[in-house]
Amino acid sequence: MPIEVNGKTFETDEEGYLANINEWEPGVAEVMAKEDELELTDEHWDIINFLREYYEEYQIAPAVRVLTKAVSKKLGKEKGNSKYLYGLFPYGPGKQACRYAGLPKPTGCV
Amino acid sequence: MAKVDYEIPELQEYVEVPELESGTMAHSAPYVAKPEFQEPLGYVGEVQDDWKEKTLDAMGDMLGKYRGLQVFMDSCVKCGSCTDKCHYYLGTKDPLNMPVARQDLMRRVYRRYFTFAGKFFGKLGMPEFVGAKELEREDLDEWFSYYHQCSQCRRCSVFCPYGIDTAEITMAAREILARVGIGQKYSNEIIGKVYKIGNNLGLPGPALEDTLEGLEEDVEDETGVKVLYPLDKKGADILLVTPSADFFAEPHVDGLIGYGKVFHEAGVSWTLSTTASEAANFGMFIGSYENMRKISLRIREAALELGVKRIVFGECGHAWRVAYSFLNTLAGPFDFLDPEYPVPQHILEFTWNEIQKGTLNLDPSRNDDMTLTFHDSCNVARATRMGDEPGGQFTIPRNVIKSVCNNYVDMDPDTIYEKTFCCGGGGGLLTDDLMEIRIKGGMPRMTALNNVIEESGVTHMAAICAICKSQFTKILPYYGMEMDQIVSVHQLVSNALILTGQVDEDDEDTDEEAA
Where are the bilayer-spanning segments (chain B) (predicted)? Predict the structure, then answer.
């Protein structure tokens, strides 16, 4: 189902992940979040931006531990855990946050 | 926890056999694989006009190849022993989730085209007289729906007086569907990634290396000991093959940290492999011998290339089934490995041996903040063994847990050992598009867990399968529990294991403060 962002159309797959990561722009995350009735705060953007940086380097979303470690370094130890991330992204940081960031869905036994 | 628009079963003291409600799950089906996910596995991209011929050809081929399937098609007497044994039936009330009824979706077509009675009455226009049915296009959709409401856990088979293996029927149905062009997106996309990148996640070598370096840092920070998590190290004694979820997800990664610590203390050299960075073998889930073989061969190739002497498997349920039961047939002979050790070996066998030898300095009180129970994973429980005694697959994990934890309680005996209930997400169902069946199918296990929580103060459940761990992480909150109540067995080992020369992070802080 394609999504409309600022008058532009973005193709997505069956599960709502962006078909082409290179087309991503911040508005994509905003629109996706709105559909989930979620308001994106700076905390959300910290995660989304980190995911995109990591993906650019490694062509994969970061492991949960890599992500929590990065959060811990940036925002303090008490936030460096999955609970904090699930608080921000109730569908799971790997899946919901990756979708907002335009990354492909992590597959496998996760 | 995400919101859902269906009812979550309410946990009762006992799981009651529900009154039937036809069609409650008829809407459930996973995404169909697009041609790009079908073709790399050798399947036709989409359904063609000759779907009927293809279906019957595929069924005939499978019946000829697998004598078991033929026997299972013929021998069911509809006694009903299996009906209330399936977690998906118990959780959904849908009569087609009674194993006998689900099997019959295919069996009635088998009877029509492959038995004398079916052919005879079929020609007279009354196949139903002998429990047979003409194959119609809608049947394939129904198969696709209900054969993805079976996790191939084989609990029903334990109770079948004829030993009919429901998983074999589900696997055959999925293989037939894939050959007709109706493959499952989740499994087939993943298998494609294994071929292309080396693991289910699609984790490339550099990302894997970075993740492992991160673990080395973490362990050193916590313990002051440099424990290595080597990748592609030629000449290592042991090749560890573990599910890629162990690199990626929680609590899986805590288990991986534990394997590394055990190897370190045992003083053996070991390595992971980039190309065989996956224990899982989804070829089994889709019932494809060819794909299962191709996936298995990567392990052989990696073992030869790295020159290892032993192969050890990490905590992964169906991987251990493929490894223990089929690896030698699929990818053997493994005559280049050290015959002194089992080929392959399970990480729990390795750890239990070390515990018995006394090489590990364990302090179970380090797990005193938890009271544990253990979830037997279906594939390990009903399709494999560990150690050299019958039932080792049940006793060895418990022995290891009890060696590293002071507080341990088993769940209801009807829900453990060979009667264990599936987590609800096995057999290729661990995907978001099947969340409803996953949540509902988890109900029997959640009931047993809830009972030991209330009666015995259990706080955590340990598991030895990547799928179980991910599934429980997801469904626990729907049943009023916390996602981190599921732990890896080697996470418990890791907590209790005091490394040689270990200085605890907290002690260090205290020392610094004192100084």
Answer: none
